[in-house]
């Protein structure tokens, strides 16, 4: 018997990505950011979400993707719950919510790559691959990198 997982999809560069809906707190269009002087390059800034200060992480930098084109639309904030509180992930565009069948899920490959550690695996859909972002594990990795000074 197969299990269905509900995923919030988004795009980043040419990647089709997803996060478990249960990890998503909310989605906000472009927000004003307060810069963090001498902050880690991953940190795009801080934003105020109804009185709560939220760290904004640029996923393009985390995943070693090219910078967003200046002519591109403003990024979208996917605010996720983590063991470190709320964190905003800057993405290019939010797709929709979809249900995927666990029978088409594949765990990440055994070969280590620099960014593979940020994903739980992928769903092979009829026309594309949907990479599933490991919200809890990735946030732990990102926070450890952001709080460690070289």
Give a verbal description of the structure.
- This protein is mainly beta and 150 residues long.
- It has one domain (4-147): CheA-289, Domain 4 (OB fold (Dihydrolipoamide Acetyltransferase, E2P), Beta Barrel).
- It has 2 helices and 11 strands; from the N terminus they run E-E-E-E-E-H-E-E-E-E-E-E-H.
- The chain has helices at 59-62, 135-147, and strands at residues 4-12, 15-20, 24-28, 43-49, 52-58, 76-82, 85-91, 93-101, 105-106, 119-124, 129-133.
- The strands form 2 sheets. Strands 8-1-2-11-10-9 form a 6-stranded mixed sheet. A 5-stranded mixed sheet has the order 3-6-7-5-4.
- A hairpin with a 2-residue loop joins strand 4 and strand 5.
- The protein is globular, with a radius of gyration of 15 Å.
- The model has no long low-confidence stretch (mean pLDDT 87).
How would you briefly describe this protein structure?
By secondary structure, this protein is mostly beta strands. The chain has 2 helices and 11 strands, in the order βββββαββββββα.
Number of domains: 1
Helix fraction bin: 10-25%
What proportion strand?
Answer: over 45%
How many alpha or pi helices? 2
Separation of termini?
Answer: 48 Å
Overall structural class, as computed from helix and strand content, comes to mainly beta
Can you tell me the overall shape?
globular
CATH level 1 class label: Mainly Beta
Quaternary state reads single chain
Mean pLDDT: 87
Strand order of the largest sheet: 8-1-2-11-10-9
């Amino acid at each position: 018997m197969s299990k269905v997982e509900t995923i919030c999809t988004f795009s980043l560069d040419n990647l089709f990505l997803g996060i478990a809906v249960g990890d998503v707190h909310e989605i906000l269009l472009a927000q004003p950011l307060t810069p963090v002087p001498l902050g880690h390059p991953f940190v795009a800034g801080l934003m105020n979400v109804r009185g709560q200060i939220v760290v904004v992480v640029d996923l393009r930098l985390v995943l070693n993707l090219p910078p967003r084109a200046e002519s591109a639309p403003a990024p979208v904030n996917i605010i996720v719950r983590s063991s470190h509180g709320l964190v905003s992930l800057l993405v290019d565009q939010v797709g929709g919510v979809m249900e995927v069948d666990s029978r088409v899920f594949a765990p990440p490959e055994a070969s280590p790559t620099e960014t593979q550690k940020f994903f739980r695996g992928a769903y092979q859909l009829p026309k594309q691959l949907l990479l599933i972002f490991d919200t809890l594990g990735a946030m732990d990795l990102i926070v450890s990198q952001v709080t460690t000074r070289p």
